[in-house]
Structures are given as structure tokens and as C-alpha cells.
TrEMBL record:
GO cellular component: outer membrane-bounded periplasmic space
Keyword Membrane annotated: yes
Keywords: Cell membrane, Lipoprotein, Membrane, Palmitate, Signal
Gene3D superfamilies: ABC-type transport auxiliary lipoprotein component
Role noted for this protein: May be involved in the biogenesis of curli organelles.
Lineage of the species this protein comes from: Bacteria, Pseudomonadati, Pseudomonadota, Gammaproteobacteria, OMG group
Region: Disordered, residue numbers: 270-309
Full protein name: Curli production assembly/transport component CsgG
Length: 309
């Protein structure tokens, strides 16, 4: 009996050790990313901060989103400053004084730089007779660079822009209603942080179909995708190589179909086919429209949104 219990305990320990070893090996292969201090050149520091982008708040959101993606190791913020300080970069990474000898940042694969380049609001209104309908659209843009910490090479440079309806109202005669978000800046920052995290993550690990069928399963969860997102599916084909440089130009792609995300979990998402053909395992997915931004759009100019007259 004791020998049997000993065998069971030994087997259990072996299984636990095997699981943790697998997790450790997988974790050791994850890219290590440091998110540097987000800058905000849009801030108005001379008029009592009439424009305040709250860049620290956005950086926290971005760190949270990148951690939830689960495909990176994120360096703690205080450790980022320490690493950059040790290398004598002091947030001037990649300029003339460091180029050629100041790179190779210890313990980091990629550095993420960001600058909030647009923050504002615009009104959209329509009125006829005693009826008036109006909406407030909040606009937010951030420029992001992903830098190879060993060479200083800019691996990715993109502008992420967000527009979201953060207040609306209507009035007719003596009756009026107004509805708005409590903190519209935080709302658009959260959307932008999710889009930036998706940009960085999918440039290394693309969104893919892991299982096709009536319900299509995608390899990213709620950290990247939201219920109601519209995505497009593509089947990758032959890789294209520039013979002069040997650089891969990507691959030929054939459009398969358009899908809507119906459910998200922490690890994966489910989607249903809207048009085209059902994608199969290995198909690439690109986000076409975020559900969080649909409310800010009333359709393209000239596009009919109801039955034609």
C-alpha cells in the first residue's frame, strides 16, 4: 500500500514538474518588451493645462493591455528607467550620440516609444424647425515606434487614431435630453491602448484562425478583440522575395470572408461568418472595424443606411 502511494506521489510530482517545465520553456521564448515614458507634445502647459492628454494614464493602460495579451514579458516601469540609465541613454535612445555604440540594452528585446499627437473634440449637429440633434466626437492619436534594443533599428512605426462618440443629445420644443461619458478621455485612451497592443502583438504573432466551422475560433482573446468587432480573413499564399535585396515582401493573399466577433475569453475569441467563405485553420485575420468605434460613424458620405427611396 505504501509502495503504491509512493508511486502515485512520484508520478504526480513528475507530471507537475513536466507542466511547470513546459510553461517555463514557453515563457523563456517570449519577447521582452520595455515601454518607455509616453510623451504628450499636444499638452498646453501655458494656459492652465487647457489641453492635458494625461499621458501617464495612457501608459498605464498600454502596459495593462500588453500584459493581458500574454505573448510578452513586460518590464516594470521603474526597471525601464534603470535599464536606460545604465546604458546612458536617458530616453534619448537612437539619437546621434548613442548610435553605433549605445545600443544592446541588457535584458530587453524591444523598446516601445509613444507620443500623443492629437487630442480634441468636434461637434456634429443637425436641426430642422424645433428639432435639434447633436453629438460630441472625441479624437485621439498616438504615434508609436517599436525599436530593436540590440541594434537601434526601428522595426515598426505607426499612427493609431481613435474617434468615439462620447456625448449626444436632442431637443424638440421645450424638451431636451443629453447623454455623455463620465470621462471621455479615458474611454478613447482605453480604445487606443487596445489598438496599440494589437499593432505590436500582431506584428510578431498574427491573429489566426485556430479552428474553422460554423463557429470560427481565433487565437486572441479580450486583450485584443471585442464582441462586435468586424474582421477580415485571408488565406496566405506564396512568399514574395525581392531578388535584389533578398528581403521578404510578404506573401500573396486571397480574401476569404468577413466575420463578426461574437464572444471573447481571456485566451481566444469566437466569430461568425458575415459574408464570403468560412476561413479554415491557419487563415490570417485583420481587424476591419472595432465595435467601440462604430458609434462615432454614421456611414460614409453618400452611403445609404436604410431602404432606398
Amino acid at each position: 500500500m505504501l509502495q503504491k502511494l509512493h508511486s502515485i506521489a512520484t508520478l504526480s510530482f513528475a507530471l507537475i514538474f513536466s507542466v511547470f517545465s513546459t510553461i517555463s520553456v514557453a515563457d523563456s521564448n517570449l519577447p521582452i518588451i520595455a515601454i518607455t515614458k509616453i510623451k504628450a507634445p499636444v499638452n498646453d502647459t501655458y494656459r492652465n493645462y487647457r489641453v492635458n492628454a494625461k499621458e501617464g494614464n495612457f501608459q498605464t493602460m498600454l502596459e495593462t493591455q500588453m500584459t493581458q495579451v500574454g505573448r510578452f514579458k513586460i518590464i516594470e516601469r521603474n526597471r525601464v528607467d534603470e535599464i536606460l540609465g545604465e546604458q546612458g541613454l536617458n530616453n534619448e535612445f537612437g539619437d546621434g550620440s548613442t548610435a553605433g555604440g549605445g545600443f544592446n540594452v541588457a535584458g530587453v528585446d524591444y523598446l516601445v516609444y509613444g507620443a500623443i499627437t492629437k487630442l480634441g473634440q468636434r461637434k456634429s449637429a443637425i436641426g430642422t424647425g424645433n428639432f435639434v440633434s447633436a453629438a460630441l466626437i472625441t479624437e485621439f492619436s498616438v504615434d508609436v515606434k517599436v525599436v530593436d534594443a540590440s541594434t537601434g533599428e526601428v522595426r515598426k512605426a505607426e499612427t493609431v487614431a481613435v474617434e468615439a462618440k462620447t456625448a449626444d443629445g436632442m431637443a424638440t420644443g421645450s424638451f431636451a435630453t443629453v447623454k455623455g461619458e463620465g470621462d471621455p478621455l479615458s474611454d478613447v485612451q482605453r480604445i487606443a491602448a487596445k489598438k496599440v497592443a494589437a499593432l505590436i502583438a500582431t506584428s510578431i504573432f498574427p491573429i489566426e484562425v485556430v479552428k474553422g466551422g460554423d463557429v470560427v475560433y481565433l487565437n486572441y482573446g479580450s486583450a485584443i478583440l471585442d464582441k462586435g468587432d468586424i474582421v477580415s480573413a485571408y488565406r496566405p499564399g506564396e512568399e514574395l522575395i525581392d531578388e535584389a535585396t533578398g528581403i521578404s515582401l510578404g506573401s500573396e493573399e486571397s480574401f476569404e470572408g468577413e466575420l463578426e466577433v461574437t464572444e471573447t475569453t481571456a485566451q481566444f475569441s469566437k466569430a461568425k461568418l458575415l459574408s464570403g467563405e468560412t476561413p479554415s485553420k491557419g487563415s490570417l485575420i485583420r481587424i476591419k472595424q472595432k465595435s467601440s468605434e462604430k458609434s462615432s460613424s454614421n456611414g460614409k458620405p453618400g452611403e445609404k443606411r436604410g431602404r432606398k427611396i
